[in-house]
Write a structure and sequence with these properties.
Layout lengths: L8 H4 L4 H7 L25 H9 L13 H14 L3 E5 L2 H10 L7 E5 L4 H13 L3 E5 L4 H7 L4 E7 L11 H10 L3 E5 L17 E5 L13 E5 L1 H15 L5 H11 L2 H20 L4 E3 L9 H7 L6 E5 L3 H10 L4 E2 L9 E3 L11 H7 L5 E5 L5 H14 L3
Parallel strand pairs: 2-3, 2-4, 4-5, 5-6, 10-11
Antiparallel strand pairs: 1-7, 6-7, 8-9, 9-12, 11-12
Helix pairs in contact: 2-4, 4-10, 5-6, 11-15, 13-15
Length: 401
């Protein structure tokens, strides 16, 4: 009898998240390998011309081309969807490919999108520059102000787009409240969950329709590859997202998919440990700098909401010093923590958003988002938190803090 695998929903429905992260979506070849196989192929052969025609028409199950289907990528799509509690998912070449596809596959000229003001710089470029070029109207609101979402709705509003916690201010969107407003107006919600992942937060449990990811971040977790993912209903993925992806080609490579599959096996362990480390570091920093933004701290303005939606404070925080010169001086004095604009890595990384990740935005937009010249974003890794604190203590002292 053929052993059931992680693609059988009648089996996986009984599994808990930690089990899904290791086994969800697994499909074994005839060799019976225990680790997921890596299928490095661009195309597939058919037994006869009729089979080829049947696959392209959809009358026969099977692979046709790796821009559309690949066994390794499909395993990752299944696993991420299962972890998210979604009916289906698609993986793409990067997080921004995922965000772009999630929006453009469902928006047309004349439609209206409402977006939270604080998000990754490239996501703001989508809302502020790209979408308007195609006749899509955009309104930017304070994502933490639930009433602002309601007030911005128009008859042609199609999508709410937000990130929570937001990059880099750790601003929290009230998922249940905002998603309820969207449903009342027949609007689709797209939530960027990259800062938390399903290990800490499942937006669909609070009513979100679509969840998008940069799997480059915590899902890989070791700074190795680029990847993105979009999860939603089968109808959304198959009827809207799939035609867009098939014909525009933001394809995830099988090798990158395999690496992220390996990363997911330790996602829960890494996120929980890094969150514990981050809490220790945040408590230290709170006594040394003018302000620290970390959802796990009582001082975070939305602490209670954050922990009502998340199981821990996460791995990322922001801290504030006087100005750019002091921020750059602190970065240059670090010996253990790397200067890097990535997040979600098992290594601790720090960056100055105003001059890196959000430098493409105008000073006025950065100011409206709360990104000052003295803000620094810190990704806390798996190192001993005492070593991280020692490094920060010495670097802060070198700039007079």
């Amino acid at each position: 009898m053929k052993r059931r695998t992680g693609q059988d929903r009648s089996v996986t429905a009984k599994w808990r998240p930690a089990t899904l992260a290791v086994r969800g979506g697994t499909a074994r070849s005839e060799w019976g390998e225990t680790s997921e196989a890596l299928f490095l192929t661009s195309g597939y052969a058919y037994d006869c011309a009729g089979d080829a025609a049947a696959r392209f028409s959809g009358d026969q199950q099977g692979m046709t081309y790796s821009r559309l289907q690949n066994p390794t990528v499909e395993m990752l799509e299944q696993r991420i969807a299962l972890l998210e509690g979604a009916e289906a998912g698609r993986c793409m070449a990067s997080g921004m490919a995922a965000m772009t596809a999630a929006l453009l596959c469902q928006l047309s000229a004349g439609d209206h999108l409402i977006a939270a003001r604080t998000m990754f710089g490239s996501c703001r470029w989508l809302t502020d520059s790209l979408l308007p070029r195609f006749g899509i109207e955009v309104t930017i609101v304070d994502g933490s102000d639930t009433a602002a979402w309601e007030a911005a709705v128009r008859p042609n509003t199609k999508v709410f787009f937000f990130e929570t916690p937001a990059n880099p201010t750790l601003e929290i969107v009230d998922l249940a409240a905002v998603c309820a407003i969207a449903k009342a107006h027949h609007v689709t919600t797209v939530a960027d969950n990259a800062f938390a992942t399903s290990a800490l937060q499942r937006p669909m449990s609070f009513g979100a329709d679509i969840v998008a990811y940069s799997a480059t971040k915590l899902m890989d977790g070791q700074g190795r590859v680029l990847a993105g993912a979009v999860c939603g209903t089968s109808a959304f993925v198959n009827d809207l997202l799939l035609p867009f992806v098939r014909n525009t080609g933001p394809t995830l490579s099988p090798f990158n998919a395999w690496v992220v599959l390996k990363g997911l096996e330790t996602l829960d362990l890494r996120v929980q440990r890094q969150s514990d480390n981050a809490m220790e570091v945040a408590r230290f920093l709170e006594g040394r700098v003018s302000r620290v933004l970390y959802p796990g701290l009582n001082s975070h303005p939305q602490h209670n909401l954050a922990l009502a939606q998340m199981s821990a404070g996460g791995t990322i925080m922001s801290l504030f010093v006087a100005d750019r010169a002091q921020a750059h001086g602190l970065l240059d004095a670090l010996e253990l923590i790397d200067i890097s604009n990535n997040i979600g890595d098992s290594r601790s990384l720090m960056t100055h958003p105003s001059s890196t990740t959000h430098s493409g935005l105008s000073a006025e937009v950065r100011e409206s988002m709360g990104i000052t010249e003295g803000m620094l974003r810190l990704n806390v890794g798996l190192e001993d938190p005492a070593d991280l604190i020692d490094d920060l203590d010495r670097a802060l002292g070198s700039v007079g803090l």
